[in-house]
């Protein structure tokens, strides 16, 4: 009888150990499955977020979506500071000559940059985004396109001869959106290019270097109530004759003397502004203050 009890206890203990071992084995086997499922869920969530962001670019900034007015943000809440990612860009045109800069004209403000293009030249979207407006304004922009981008900017492409996108269409950086022209209030074929943040114009020359076909820096910081300001990756603005401090993005082969000649400044002044010496080794991508 005692022997039978002992056997029963041993069997029970063995069963518990076996069950525990089986459970641990099951948990161990389930762990990678759970991890994989979690990864799939995260990927699906990430894709969903990306899709929603594409559908509503910069939805956290802009109060509405309008296909009618270019400047429709009188009630928008403008942040004190906002950093704009400039990477993933494409120059809107391969042409490099600026025919009219950003700034005041005789009777009005020129809120964009005019780049010399010819009728039929390819015009591309500067960043990923969604086409907001495709319209014609005979006494203004002519045939034009407005695109809202994921990074918070809106870009305007004016005086086109042909628009090749539709309103609410998603576009990628570099995608063809139109052809250069001479429509609207224009005295010669050119691209009128604007960069705006919540309707506030930003000088495109502070973002894009058309002669060099490059962005000025990888990031740009908008400051409310001030002239355009860039982050440490780009330019900080202070008072000057035109309210802007100019910077140079170092390229391969650049030297202090070459940069000084290009920017109309002495080497000593260039060194002093950047707290460097004539022996300092320049790195491609480095940004130097030039005024």
Give a written overview of the molecule.
The relative contact order is 0.12. The chain folds into three domains: 1-55; 81-214, Glucose Permease (Domain IIA) (Distorted Sandwich); 249-289, Membrane-bound Lytic Murein Transglycosylase D, Chain A. Strands 2, 5, 7, 8, 9, 11, 13 and 14 form an eight-stranded antiparallel β-sheet that branches. The chain has a three-stranded antiparallel β-sheet with strand order 6-12-10, with no helix packed on it. Strands 1-17 form a two-stranded antiparallel sheet. The protein is of the alpha+beta class and 291 residues long. The chain has three helices and 19 strands. β8 (142-149) and β9 form a beta hairpin.
